[in-house]
Amino acid sequence: MWNRKKKNSNNQSPLEKKDLSIHDIRKAVHAYADDKPKEVPLSVLIKEDLTLDYELLAPYLKAIPTHTFYMSRETYELFEEQDKGLAIDLDLVQRAVDQYMKQTQELPIIDNDPYKRINYFKLERLHLLERRPDREFYLTNEEFMITYKKPK
């Protein structure tokens, strides 16, 4: 029984590398999310370094991307290689915001800011932020999630 399984896996040809767009990756992630069992979190697609597990996405992509893509563990946003730092910062600040709200039951935003900009000082005061990102983040109206996109 075990030998037969090994033979089948050896007969599979390796997937070719292709120049896939972020749109292609996003479609594959959505298809994977639709097909996975409910008890399996989407985060299984995300490796420790925030890269995607292309083996899990292979049935949907039918190839291996030539470029590296990253996904935030906290917000599930997808990023291209040049935006890896943004994915890391997003996770860092989202975790800090979640902890701040658990501890204080308050929003960690700059007082009277119409854009609901995250107040790094409030997060640092409670030792929730290990470093201050070089960009601004904003609180959205969706379940206290943050975004890097300035509201209009």
Q: Spans with pLDDT under 50 lasting ≥5 residues?
A: 1-11
Q: Which strand order do you get reading across the main beta sheet?
A: 1-2
Shape: elongated
How much helix is in the residues?
25-40%
Rg (C-alpha, Å): 19 Å
What is the ordering of alpha helices and beta strands?
Answer: HEHHEEEHHEE
How many domains, in number, for the residues?
A: 2
Q: What structural class do the secondary elements suggest?
A: mainly alpha
Strand content: 5-15%
Structural summary, described in words:
- It comes from Halobacillus dabanensis.
- InterPro entries: DUF3939.
- This is DUF3939 domain-containing protein.
- With 152 residues, this protein is mainly alpha-helical.
- It has 5 helices and 6 strands.
- Strands 1-2 form a two-stranded parallel ribbon.
- Helix 2 packs across helix 3.
Offer a quick outline of the entry.
With 152 residues, the chain is mostly helical. Helices cover 39% and strands 9% of the residues. The N terminus is likely disordered.
Task: Describe the secondary structure blueprint for this structure.
Layout: H1 2-11, E1 17-18, H2 22-35, H3 54-61, E2 64-65, E3 69-71, E4 78-80, H4 84-104, H5 120-125, E5 138-139, E6 146-147
Parallel strand pairs: 1-2
Antiparallel strand pairs: 3-4, 5-6
